[in-house]
Design goal:
5% strand; four-stranded mixed beta sheet; mainly alpha; elongated; 16 helices; 395 residues; 4 strands; single chain
């Protein structure tokens, strides 16, 4: 057969496989819901859940042992911060810790005795903040807002009170200080932090499960060999195409929602972000293909897909750090498509990185798709041939 004939047969097999999959969606309403309504519904729910982008009025207990005008002014400054709210002023640290254990407060501010006297003398006058690290995000948010409020109050006190007490000429700033500036998410919005991670994590899991179920269905129903035919690569590509296309569209909608509806636009290249969508979802469905081909069982394959793609968010390095983690964690992190995709997304969506720096994670996604997809096709073809050979053996 000539090369032109092979290409023509491949195109015919691709289109036939694509139409076959679309017909199955039309007949199986639950699978149709899985690839159409469910992704959009979950994205809408996640967008609604995280629409309160910044934590407000985290409950805080204040223990004021100084009981001075300066300490009361400090309390007002902390309570005026939008991120925290003083809900109680217990008489002792022990009472405040009881409120912390009861989850009535997530942080404690302790103003020690003689705080104002030491401050007016120009001596160190620390104020202590304790936060509940078991609720890490809430506790750390409260600690940051407390520190910001105390810092602002400290500057005002230095200028207005201590300067009059000791004279402006004797005021001295600390010889070494840290000025921290928040980059790329100055509002410290949890919405802009979580939605760009949750959207692709959810969509990649649904895409992998749907594609894995499509391949497992052929094995389960005994139609694998007939469907693959003489052009298995084209048949598999035709089956994968609607999943990659649909979920790439959902991913693009998620990016545009975060960037243009909730954020300040795309800082880098929008086209590079859109190009990353099909590469990312192709890598995910190719991994699903490989797992189904390795296990040769729909149930076991889908379970492995859930364990791998389903845990990607936790191991991507975006939520929990993998720097210095055990070798297994770092290796697992490197093998997940979400890890590479998140790098591209953060670089182009928020950081405005040059497009060249995103070529490496894009290349990783392409390599994952080629290796996992190639191995999956070869294994699936071998399974189909074995099933044909088994049927030919006389009873």
């Amino acid at each position: 057969m000539t090369d032109q004939g092979q290409v023509s047969n491949g195109i015919i097999a691709f289109v036939a496989s694509l139409r076959r999959e679309l017909r199955h969606w039309r007949c199986d309403r639950w699978e149709w819901v899985l690839v159409t309504l469910l992704p959009l519904l979950l994205m809408a729910v996640m967008a609604w859940l995280f629409s309160g982008s910044v934590l407000r009025e985290v409950p805080v207990a204040l223990v004021d042992l100084d009981a001075s005008p300066a300490s009361r002014a400090l309390a007002r400054a902390i309570d005026a911060s939008p991120g925290v709210k003083i809900v109680s002023q217990p008489a002792s640290l022990q009472q405040a810790q009881s409120e912390l254990r009861a989850l009535d407060a997530f942080a404690i501010v302790l103003v020690p005795r003689d705080m104002s006297r030491l401050a007016l003398r120009g001596q160190a006058a620390p104020v202590y903040a304790f936060y509940n690290a078991t609720y890490m995000a809430t506790g750390q948010s409260a600690a940051r807002d407390i520190a910001d409020a105390v810092g602002a109050h400290n500057a005002r006190m230095l200028r207005e009170q201590i300067g009059r007490q000791v004279g402006p000429a004797k005021l001295r700033a600390a010889p070494v200080s840290v000025q921290a500036t928040v980059l790329y998410n100055p509002a410290r919005s949890y919405e802009l932090f979580l939605l760009p991670l949750v959207f692709p994590a959810l969509l990649s899991l649904l895409a992998a499960l749907a594609a894995g179920g499509a391949f497992g269905r052929e094995r389960r129903d005994g139609t694998l060999a007939g469907w693959l035919g003489e052009t298995p690569w084209a048949a598999i590509a035709g089956k994968l195409f609607p999943y990659v296309a649909l979920f790439s569209l959902y991913g693009a909608l998620g990016v545009l929602y975060v960037a243009d509806v909730r954020g300040d636009g795309v800082a880098g290249s929008l086209w590079l972000l859109l190009f990353a969508q099909p590469l990312f979802y192709l890598a995910c469905v190719c991994i699903a293909l490989l797992l189904i081909a390795v296990t040769r069982d729909m149930g076991a394959g889908l379970s492995l897909i859930g364990l791998s793609i389903g845990t990607a968010l936790a191991f991507s390095g975006a939520t929990f750090p993998v720097i210095g983690a055990p070798l297994f964690v770092r290796a697992w992190n490197a093998l997940l498509p979400l890890t590479a995709y998140v790098q591209v997304q953060m670089q182009q969506l928020f950081m405005g990185s040059p497009w060249v720096v995103s070529l490496r994670p894009l290349g990783v996604l392409m390599l994952m798709a080629l290796v996992a997809g190639g191995a999956g096709v070869l294994l699936l073809v071998r399974v189909a041939r074995k099933s044909v050979d088994t049927e030919r053996v006389p009873a």
